[in-house]
What does this fold into?
Amino acid sequence: MSGLKSLKKRRRVQVIGIAGACVAAILAALWFLPDDSFQYFRSPSEVVAAPPAPNERFRIGGLVEAGTLVRGQGQEITFSVTDGGASINVAYSGILPDLFDEGQGMVAQGNYINGRFEAVEILAKHDETYMPKEVLDALKEQGTYVAPDGTAVTN
It folds into this structure.
């Protein structure tokens, strides 16, 4: 019987050792990932308060400000995104999602260069009432969120 207990103890130590090695390998892989592998969400107020470096890719979200959507040559589009506290000019070249419109929530991915957000991707919404959680939280913080039923909502 003592040989069986020794075998169980040895197996337990082996399993714990292998699990520890796997955790260490995952942490090492995350440590050596390039900085642009992680994209952070920022509201327009956060971008104005602390402008990121031009080479930092991040996501910005809010409402497309009414009256700012301008379609240029080809697929060039400019507009402003706001969270009620600040507005950021956005430039994008590409095809917009079908539900993209003024006054609607949006999330864009890109870089903030010379006071303008250069978007490389505009993320689509699921339907007219959907708003990404990050955008919803930022609008609630500013006190400008209005629920789909027309009632003002704050945190």
Summary: DSSP finds three helices and seven strands in the chain. The chain has two domains: 2-33, 36-142. The beta strands are 40-42, 57-64, 70-71, 76-82, 87-93, 105-113, 116-123.
